[in-house]
Amino acid sequence: MESIGFKEWSLICDALGRGTQSVILRKGGIAEGRGGFSFRHREFFLFPTFFHEQITKVRIAAADIPAPGSTIAIQWYAKVERALRINSLAIAEALAPLHILSAEVVRERFGYKGNGLNVAFVRVFEVSPVWVLRNEKRFSGCRSWIDLPPSPEMKMQPVVDAATHEKLRADFDQIVSSS
Predict the structure, then answer these.
(1) What SS3 string covers the chain?
(2) Residue 33 pLDDT class (50, 70, 90 cuts)
(3) What's the whole-number mean pLDDT along residues 41-57?
(4) How far is Cα 88 from Cα 124, in angstroms, rounded to an integer?
């Protein structure tokens, strides 16, 4: 298992970890380099990022977003089952049942620096025990991928059962194939 972290809003990490989200929609961070963003890692730890404006950018009623602290709790691990670039806003909007982002944010991300979004359908696992890392300066910045220290011994349990996961995967496949 690679010790790679994928930086994502804490509310998105929570939704993935609760099984209420099964896709990641990404345009890319400012520091992604000339090639831009891609799902270059097929497995990774979800590394939560914290800022209070994210609550206005998702379709949930309310949430507690902790202030960034001296530690980061790594609670989930994701495996990319399918990743692709979509160039249709209609398809991006049709993915709404599979994530919690607001329609405005999806449109904004889709149109940022040219049309299109990178989308990954993921299987998420809860890690036990929770891996607590010291929040270091090397984890900051507008980039999606970060190298983490070697992970401790841990157990992983899927956050949704196999039947639910297969239904979500079928829904995803149907949406993205309707281009």
Answers:
(1) CCCEEEEEEHHHHHHHHHCCCCEEEECCCCCCCCCCCCCCCCEEEEEEECCHHHHHHECCCCCCCCCCCCEEEEEEEEEEEEEEEECCHHHHHHCHHHCCECHHHHHHHHHCCCCCEEEEEEEEEEEEEEEEEECCHHHCCCCCEEECCCCCCCEEEECCCHHHHHHHHHHHHHHHHCC
(2) low
(3) 80
(4) 26
Q: Yes or no: say if 98 and 81 are a contact pair by the CB < 8 Å rule.
A: no
Instruction: For residue 106, give both structure tokens.
Output: 């999806």
Tokens of 140: 């900051």
Contact 16, 124 (CB under 8 A): yes
Range with the poorest average pLDDT among 26-30, 71-75, 95-99, 112-116: 26-30
pTM > 0.70: yes or no:
yes
What is the C-alpha separation between 115 and 27, in angstroms, rounded?
Answer: 10
